[in-house]
Amino acid sequence: MQGTGIERLRIGAARRRGRRGLSVIEVVVALTLVSGVMLGASAGFSGSLAAVDRAHDLHDARTHLATVLEDVAAQPYDNLLALNGNQVLSGATLASSAFVTDLTVFQAQVDLLQIRAVVSDRRTGQQLASVTTLRSRR
User: Fold this and answer.
1) pLDDT value at position 11?
2) How many helices (H) and strands (E) does the chain have?
3) Nearest Cα to 68, choosing from 55, 87, 84, 85?
4) CA 122 to chain centre
5) Which candidate, 136, 126, 128, 81, places its Cα nearest to that of 103?
6) d(CA 74, CA 60)
7) Separation CA 105–CA 121 (nearest Å)
8) Which of 138, 114, 133, 124 has the alpha carbon at shortest distance from 66?
9) Which pLDDT band, with edges at 50, 70 and 90, does 9 fall under?
10) Quick count: other Cβ atoms within 10 Å of Cβ 61?
11) Averaged pLDDT for residues 55-78
């Protein structure tokens, strides 16, 4: 026989007393797992921030383009050809501008002008949006 019930309880209690805490290896493995999860979460978070910044830039570029188109629409028909080749800045100076809009205006038909506005990121040179519209003599 292996012993009485009381002896078994004493042996089990003795084993548990020796195993009260975690070993160093267990702590290192747990910290490594937690670090890996946190690293993955931070990478996802920084990717989300970059996407939000990009969306903000696109919104600002489209707002700038809408403002340029409103200014062009306010011009008399006879003044529109003079806008061909102009650049409209989003700021007061080139250094303070985030966006540049290039205007192209040409005679499509008699009494009909085609106007193309292309907005680009001044820092990267990347084209962000463009609009082509027609304007007739009234």
Assistant:
1) 63
2) 2, 4
3) 87
4) 17
5) 81
6) 21
7) 21
8) 133
9) low
10) 21
11) 93
